[in-house]
Amino acid sequence: MKRRFSHFLAGLAAATALVAAPALADHHGPTSSDLMNDAASAGDVLSYGMGPWQQRFSGLDALNSDNVSKLVPVFAASLGGEKQRGQEAQPLVYDGTIYVTGSYSRLFAFDARTGEKKWEYTARLPDGIMPCCDVVNRGAAIHGEKIIFATLDARLIALNRETGKVIWNKKTADYQEGYSATAAPLIVKDMVITGNSGGEFGVVGAVQARNVDTGELVWERPVIEGHMGTLNGAPNGMTGKLNATWEGDLWKTGGGATWLGGTYDPGTNLLYFGTGNPAPWNSHLRPGDNLYTSSTLAIDADTGVIKWHYQTTPHDGWDFDGVNEFIPFDATMNGKPMKLGAKADRNGYFYVLDRTNGKLLGAHKFVMQTTWADGINLKTGRPNYIGEGRPGAPNGAEKGKVVFSSPSFLGGKNWMPMAYSQDTGLFYIPSNDWGMDIWNEPIAYKKGAAYLGAGFTIKPIADDHIGALRAMDPKTGKIVWEYKNAAPLWGGVLTTKGNLVFTGTPEGYLKAFDAKTGTELWKFQTGSGVVGSPVTWEQDGEQYVAVMSGWGGAVPLWGGEVAKTFKDISQGGMLWVFKLPK
Questions:
Q1: Does the annotation count 568 as an active-site position?
Q2: SS3 labels along 140-163
Q3: For residue 166, what are the β-bridge partners?
Q4: Residue 179 and residue 18: Cα distance in Å, rounded?
Q5: Residue 70 φ then ψ, to 5°
Q6: Given 289, 319, 321, 437, the catalytic residue
Q7: For 304, what's the count of Cα atoms within 13 Å in the CB-facing half-sphere?
Q8: CA angle in degrees (0–180, nearest 5) for 250-251-256
Q9: How does DSSP assign 488-503, residue by residue?
Q10: Quick one: pLDDT at residue 582?
Q11: Record's Pfam families (predicted)?
Q12: pLDDT range class, residue 154, cuts 50, 70, 90
């Protein structure tokens, strides 16, 4: 097998009163306050994740488990052209317009009633871009008269939402060093908050906050120990402590890309960002815990200062990025109401933390097997490592001992966002059961080149499925139900007050399930694999559902032996919109 590099990018709970009518659009567009209220406003979708907590829960129930079987398409709008790869975006909906990003750094505006294209913007990408994991983009952000998205050459672009004309265009990092950007921006307090991609190239993960009106940098926080943060152009303290968990100069090319973006909790004023794998993959070359890679960080939104961290995979040797979304939720644990957050990690464990301080409260396996560790120590917060589960050190020029590891580096859950239902109290996790043969190789850092030091082959571990949508109780760690899918799941999840859970499959279906039982209630064939995130909103007194269709992302690029489960899937680029017939 060729040596390859990879990495795989690629409701405010208290708000119970829903806006009954579609939101009245203000000529000036949504404010930061409107974005904070997105989970409680039914007539639009203003943010990635449908609110700062990104629970992907809608309080709408006109469409429900009793009538969803009647759901029909309203229209399908094509992204056109030859660029039909990896449509991982989540739509935004505002003022009768649906905004969606497409592969190859494109942004589209469609009429929400007819599907007619209003405008299209295509970024001019240089020839030398280095996206590790397909040419995807996961969505845009809206604020005032601007719609903002990130591009594969590590830029952030603000367009006029009515015309598609550029308002500002800022470079966030150097694509020639291996940086890129694929995540949907997060808007907090009139700042655009973004991460970076490129963990396979020895980059340094960072979070940036920029002025939403000008694009100028407000603060930056590198996430690898030893690097300096900035605030308003001045130094703002070192991240961690120099050489505390990295030897020599290894921190300078330490990885930790923040490639999925973050969530925000207005109550604590904390941004929650996951960080990617350390570089290189070969863990024998970088002794120590390698902070703050494969972690969740809580960052002060005003200053960029790290308030707490929790590392899910210290001294990661499997590319188990800790980048997955950390979703705030409120629940009673052991008789006490608590401010919590949950994360289904690449490493196969589902973590529940106190979101105010990062204290670990629960960690449960949500996949079939974890060969690298046999549980998480709740006292120390650290994994119980299985020694023989770590790939061996290279012997001179020879590769090290090959080990079988599960999950594979594509993760028990990769980028695709889970959802939390305030009704059932369950998290709905799009997960995958697979493993890999992995081995380490000698490697040296070279600017702009792959910095891996490992090889791998992905393998199935079950006869009947790879993908599994799992409903997990965060209080007990029990899996309440699961739906198994032949091909890997690679799309986001939506849940609603109508007792519904929606997600897509590579086989081309958008599916709806009973949120309590997991019974499949409806499916629709979109013509290509669904790897986007569905949304729902109310328009003209009716409830609508929308999703992107278009197969791609990391799986077809790096699928190894599991590729045969999806070898016949057509590529595509379509926005599908559904509602109940009148």
A1: no
A2: CEEECCEEEEECCCCEEEEEECCC
A3: 159
A4: 41
A5: -95, 0
A6: 319
A7: 29
A8: 115
A9: PP-S-EEEETTTEEEE
A10: 87
A11: PQQ
A12: very high
Among the listed residues 223, 383, 211, the one whose alpha carbon sits nearest the alpha carbon of residue 298: 223
Give the type of residue at 191: M
- Determine the 3-state secondary structure of 132 from DSSP: coil
3-class state of residue 455 by DSSP: strand
Cβ contacts of 545 within 8 Å, gap of 6 or more: 63, 71, 494, 502, 510, 534, 535, 536, 577, 578, 579
Asked if 12 contacts 30 with a C-beta cutoff of 8 angstroms, the reply is no
Any bridge partners for residue 537, and if so which? 544
Q: Determine the average pLDDT of the residues in 110-122.
A: 97
Q: Which residues pair with 333 in a beta bridge?
A: 336
Long-range pairs for 213-216 at CB < 8 Å and ≥24 separation?
213/144, 213/146, 214/168, 215/156, 215/158, 215/168, 215/169, 215/170, 216/170
Backbone angles phi, psi at 220, to 5 degrees: -140, 140
Q: What is the pLDDT of residue 14?
A: 36
DSSP code per residue over 71-92: -EEEEEEE--SS--S------E
Per-residue pLDDT tens digits for 128-147:
887 777 788 999 999 999 99
- Tokens standing for residue 66: 């009793």
Omega before 280 cis (within 30°)? yes
Structure tokens at 86: 């990896």
CA 303/CA 232 separation, integer angstroms: 9
The rounded distance, in Å, linking the Cα atoms of 294 and 209 is 21
- Indicate whether 8 pLDDT > 60: no
How far, in Å, CA of 568 to CA of 294, rounded? 34
Rounded Cα distance between 157 and 140, Å, is 10
Whole-angstrom Cα Rg for the chain: 22
Q: Quick check: 236 pLDDT over 80?
A: yes
Residue pair 221/206 in contact (Cβ under 8 Å)? The answer is yes
Pick from 201, 86, 99: which is nearest to 142 by CA?
Answer: 99
Q: Encoding tokens for residue 238?
A: 């070192």
Give the closest residue to 350 by CA, choosing from 430, 438, 422.
430
Task: Give the integer Cα–Cα distance in Å for 318 and 31.
Answer: 42
Residue 229 has, within 13 A of its CA and on its CB side, a CA count of 26
**Exposure class string for 242-259: b at 16+ Cβ within 10 A, else e:** eeebbeeebbebbbbbbb
The residue among 241, 298, 300 whose CA lies nearest residue 275 is 298
Beta strands in 499-554, from DSSP E residues, in sequence order: 500-504, 509-514, 520-525, 535-539, 542-549
First to last CA, the chain: 55
Query: How high does pLDDT run on average in the chain?
Result: 92
